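Researcher: We are triaging several targets before committing to wet-lab work. For this one, the compound of interest is flavin mononucleotide. I'm pasting the protein sequence and the ligand SMILES. What I need is the predicted three-dimensional arrangement of the protein with the ligand bound, expressed as structure tokens, so it can go straight into our comparison scripts without reformatting.
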Amino acid sequence: MIIGSMLAILVLGIVMMVISIFSKAALAITAGLAIGLFIWIAILFWPVFPVFSGVLVLLAVIRAFKTPASGLILALAIFVVLFIAWQILLVNSVNREVISSVDVINPKGTEGKALVVYHSKTNFTKKVSYAFANGLADKGWKVDITTASSKAPTDLSGFDLLVLGSPTYEWRPSQRIQDYLKMLGDLKDKPTVVIIVGEGYTVLSLPTMEKLVKQANGKLVKSLALWKLRPNIVNGEIKNPEEIARQAAQELKL
Ligand SMILES: Cc1cc2nc3c(=O)[nH]c(=O)nc-3n(C[C@H](O)[C@H](O)[C@H](O)COP(=O)(O)O)c2cc1C
């Protein structure tokens, strides 16, 4: 979704750039769009900084030299207002509750019992949460897995491990996972794994999630940050995030 919005802005920027050959106002808006896009990408994906945004900024700066400063400021202001409005709508939409039944993986497993609860809108968190669940099943665990909704199990007494999977939305774990944690209340030292995913910037959401688990008296046994765009590097090697999640579960020690 976020890639879609960025592409839409990029296409709009290119169209404006073509129009700007004929119009000064379009020129200023193009510069505003380009700078806004640059900042957005810089904040979200700093480690895999796309070259095209740098090119856009360069073009914008060159063009802005020919534009009155007030035009540029207006363009930036318009961009910021639209950007904030769009983000509010987007964050509300991605944080909407997803209710699903409990899926049982390896029902005959006897080595331990885990509850995996995740929130996912575009399936990445779902995939890595299932990969983690399958890793536990590989070593003989029975795993119940479901989405973070008002219908998700809240009695943890029959489980040896709780696993929480959450996307990052605006530098924070998803509100759904935070609400689910509130529903659970006191975790009573329950061994807990947190999996945080994002396009590439999880440096704030992971510690927030860890803190929330500790505040709820959970015993944090593993935390993982996995990325969609930024390469996931383990021991100097780029690895598939699902593979990392599955292996982490296989190697998990309580
Ligand atoms: C509104 C919004 C804000 C986001 N903020 C961040 C962010 O701060 N850092 C990041 O790395 N990814 C961010 N993302 C990307 C998502 O975390 C990423 O697409 C994730 O895979 C979504 O999980 P899902 O595929 O399970 O729905 C954001 C996505 C959206 C829609």
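Researcher: Any quick observations?
Model: The radius of gyration is 22 Å.
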